[in-house]
Specification:
Structural class: mainly alpha
Number of helices: 3
Distance between the termini: 44 Å
Shape: globular
Strand order of the largest sheet: 1-2
Strand content: under 5%
Oligomer: single chain
Radius of gyration: 13 Å
Helix content: over 70%
Length: 86
């Protein structure tokens, strides 16, 4: 994997996380860098749960990445709500 393909992977994962953030109630705590981390973890989580279905861009299966990121955003928003209440 070259550095350009790795940077493109990070960009696509971040965009998928932002899409998931728009769909799921709750917010990603942080900016685009946190969205990239959520996207990368969401890509791994989505591939583990859903496989590599749907279209792929720069080695990122888009549908599982968005779904995995949505699950992660939902869990992060629940966790941040619990922490904020304490």
């Amino acid at each position: 994997m070259s550095i350009v393909s790795f940077l493109l992977f990070l960009l696509i994962a971040g965009i998928c996380a932002i899409i998931a953030d728009a769909v799921v109630p709750g917010r990603i705590p942080g900016g685009f860098l946190v969205a990239i981390v959520v996207g990368v973890i969401g890509a791994w989580l989505g591939a583990a749960i859903f496989g590599t279905i749907g279209p792929s861009l720069a080695g990122v299966a888009l549908i599982p990445t968005i779904l995995g990121s949505a699950i992660l955003v939902f869990l992060l928003s629940l966790l941040s709500g619990v922490i904020a209440r304490r």
